[in-house]
Amino acid sequence: MSKHIHGCICCSGDFGQIFKTNQRVKDLKEQVAEGSWSSRWGMDLGSLGRRDFLKGGAAIAGLAAALPSGAKAQGTSTLVFTGGTVLTVDEDFSEAEAIAIRGNRILAVGTAGEVRSVAGADALVVDLEGKTVLPGFVDPHTHVVSGAVMDAVMEYVGMARFGTVAEVLDHIAARAADAPAGEWLVFRNFDPAVQEGADELTFADFDAISTEHPIFVINASGHLAYANLAAFEASNVPMDVQNPPGAEFVRDADGNLTGVIKNNVAFLQVLSGYPKLASTDPVDALVGLLSKWSALGLTTVSELALGGLTQSPADVDILMGAAATGRLAARLRGYPFYSIGADVWDAADITPNMGNALARVSGYKLVADGSNQGYTGLQREPYLNSDNYGIAYIAPDDLVEMAVERASKGWQLAIHGNGDAAIDNVLDACEAVRDAGIDMSRVRARIEHCSILHDEQIARMKELGVSASFLIGHVHYWGVAMRDEVFGEEKAQLLDRCKSVEDAGVGFTIHSDFTVTDPDPLHMIEMAVTRKTWKDPDYVLAPDEKVSVETAIRAITSEAAWQLFSDHEVGSLEPGKLADLVILDQDPRKVDPDTIKDIAVLETWMDGRQVYKRGA
Questions:
Q1: Residues contacting 117, CB < 8 A, separation 6+
Q2: Which of 176, 329, 478, 592 has the highest CB neighbour count under 10 A?
Q3: Residue pLDDT, tens place only, 103-118
Q4: Does 59 have pLDDT greater than 60?
Q5: Smallest Cα–Cα separation from 147: which of 296, 315, 370?
Q6: What's the pLDDT score for residue 25?
Q7: In what order do the strands lie in the sheet with 359-361?
Q8: Using CA atoms, how far apart are residues 364 and 362, in angstroms rounded to an integer?
Q9: What pLDDT is recorded for position 616?
Q10: How far is CA 282 from the centre of its chain?
Q11: What is the 8-class DSSP label of residue 240?
């Protein structure tokens, strides 16, 4: 593993600079600067909390009236799904025979006879033919606003798709063979830290593929990139280009550019000539991304760095604008990002719970440190074979001040903490919130990633009512690197301690942190259940931290909905909740745990609409 020191791509305050050439982003930023930007999107999306939604769905009805007719839920028609297994994921993880939905709500769950009786004789009956129904999956930590644009303009070549650098280069060569000369070929999530092969891509690698196509590859860290000479030329970057402050165009011993570029301040100069990056509409990209994800069974996702795309509150315009299209295949929950400035968010009148069941601002995001695999997660002890302790992104005293100030104004807190010292700081901040007399059950503070966790920290989490959200891909994709390069065998056992927090009565979720990993809920369930590593399939990282399939399902349904302040409306299949569900060809509890990821998603329903059907 090459020891490049870098922060977390998702929590970098300047990550949005990648999109500064996008026309819609520029327009929104200009509107904010001119004071002409409005956060109301032409429809009433006022502050609608839990009580409003429990009044019988009037808020949803009002939204539906504002949407295009083709996007509405199924009116008053009633559907009964029976003949299979319905896993409600309610408090008791009850198993039912049938479920009925009417419009966009769940009408009844229970035995086939009970549900048919409630549904009435005119209900349309759907035979599940032995299939399994679950609540729609909920990913509580993704980055869909900026990630959607990245996904729309950059093809994924990361570890979930290619195991070696040679495979990545072969794929780029295949794309070049099919693309017209001059067409840009742009890729994301290349990670030589885990993909076997060379540590970097150079002019020589790309010249062997094509000299007629601009080629640009961004590292999974978001802090490194690789480009060919044609890309430099297409963007008018000269060979004698000077290094910007804090960045580098890497040169060889003779002073010649190699094609390796460090820091986005530098590589944006090369990427600036890419036409698709400038023309892609963020709303269309977001709608398209969620439509694609419906094939994975996702019905609620999140943006944990709201403001990162436009570097302003105008990201909310994209979030709510997507909802207003009537084409969303999943619900959206946004968390304003601290680096924009609390005063800026307040001045824009962005408030907790603003929005509705389709799109809502749910909480506030703070960041205590960086990335463990990037050696910027803040540690109690230095990294393996190093004197580096990582970085505190927010000084401890400032973290306390920010947490208390935001919580006192009604904000839920989601605080990024990877290293054990950072988690100490997060818990100190949460303790200060409690000691300020703020009800922690209302704050629902959560530690994002919560990677390296000690027993006494778990005890503090329990005492303070703080939950965990684990990037479970850290175990699967980076587990071997954590053991051999980052921490060593002993400390690596403290990574993503799912079972320990469960045993302590601390709630937890699992998430993808897209674009860090791609959001495949069934695969994430398998990762939590088996804890097998991608690079060494025979190695199980901290086997005592395995959880049951039922627990892992909860972590990406009901628990995730709770963390997003959406448990009153989604996350379990119970009467009165919104009709978000997924139909699988097999019951995840009854297959070989190593094959959970291979279970087929047959149908996905969101808001009473079928948004995905396999083969359709």
A1: none
A2: 478
A3: 999 999 999 999 999 9
A4: no
A5: 315
A6: 82
A7: 137-138, 298-306, 331-336, 359-361
A8: 7
A9: 80
A10: 17
A11: T
Q: What is the pLDDT of residues 176-192, one digit of tens each?
A: 999 999 999 999 999 99
Distance CA 400, CA 396 (A): 6
Q: Are 390 and 369 in contact (CB under 8 A)?
A: yes
Contact between residue 116 and residue 548 where contact means Cβ atoms under 8 Å apart: no
Closest C-alpha among 295, 14, 4, 327 to residue 146: 14
Q: Give the dihedral of Cα atoms 472, 477, 481, 484; nearest 10 deg.
A: 80
Over residues 293-316, the mean pLDDT reads 95
As a whole number of angstroms, the distance between CA 185 and CA 212 comes to: 11
pLDDT digits (tens, 9 = 90+) for 412-438: 999 999 999 999 999 999 999 999 999
CA 385 to chain centre: 32
Query: One-letter amino acid identity for 574?
Result: E
- Reported as a single tens digit per residue, the pLDDT across 206-239 is 999 999 999 999 998 887 899 999 999 999 999 9
Strand order in the sheet with 257-262: 155-156, 185-190, 215-219, 224-227, 257-262, 248-251
Cβ-based neighbour number of residue 130 at 10 Å:
11
pLDDT of 358 > 70? The answer is yes
What sign for the dihedral angle of Cα 45, 603, 296, 549? positive
**Residue 412 exposure: Cα atoms within 13 Å on the Cβ side:** 28
- 375 or 56, which is more confident: 375
CA nearest to 605, candidates 568, 586, 576, 578:
578
108 Rama class: left (phi>0) / alpha (psi -120 to 50) / beta: beta
- The secondary structure of 594-609 as a DSSP string is GGGGG--EEEEEETTE
Backbone angles phi, psi at 455, to 5 degrees: -55, -45
Please, is 385 exposed, middle or buried when counting C-beta atoms within 10 Å of its C-beta (0-12, 13-18, 19+)? exposed
Residue found under tokens 């601290």 = 338
Helix, strand, coil percentages, rounded to 5, for the chain: 35, 20, 40
Cis upstream peptide for 557 (omega within 30°): no
Angstrom distance (rounded) from CA 434 to CA 359: 29
- Per-position b or e across 412-442, b if 16+ CB within 10 A of its CB: bbbbbbbbbbbbbbbbbbbbbbbeeebebee
Q: Which residue has the tokens 């996350």?
A: 571
Q: What are phi and psi of 336, to 5 degrees?
A: -55, 140
Using CA atoms, how far residue 210 sits from 189, 257, 267, in Å, is 21, 18, 20
Indicate the DSSP class of residue 486.
I
Classify residue 311 as left (phi > 0), alpha (psi -120 to 50) or beta: left
Residue whose C-alpha is closest to residue 424's, from 457, 384, 392? 457
Which amino acid would we find at residue 506?
A: V
